[in-house]
Write a structure and sequence with these properties.
alpha+beta; about 80 residues; 2 helices
Length: about 80
């Protein structure tokens, strides 16, 4: 198992995840990051420039595993909604 940290970056601002989550794989980390991103996008009280925002996911060795742009998550949600309508 690997500990993954989900840091949120919006423009020049970085909110660090100091706790992390122990997961089996990077694929599981991607699923968690996508859920976190979707929750932020759905929260009407969060105001930021989504085009300049992303989750930066690192492992316990501070190696970057991936970066998930918020625009990618928003586009995926829009496609899913279109399919349901």
């Amino acid at each position: 198992m690997t500990v993954y940290y989900f840091h949120f970056q919006s423009g020049g601002r970085l909110i660090m995840d100091h706790e992390g989550v122990e997961l089996r794989s990077a694929a599981d980390a991607l699923e968690v990051a996508a859920k976190l991103a979707a929750a932020l996008l759905d929260d009407g009280e969060v105001a930021c420039d989504w085009t300049r925002s992303a989750f930066r996911v690192e492992d316990q060795h501070q190696r970057r595993v991936f970066r998930l742009p918020m625009t990618t998550v928003r586009a995926r949600e829009n496609r899913s909604r279109a399919l349901l309508n």
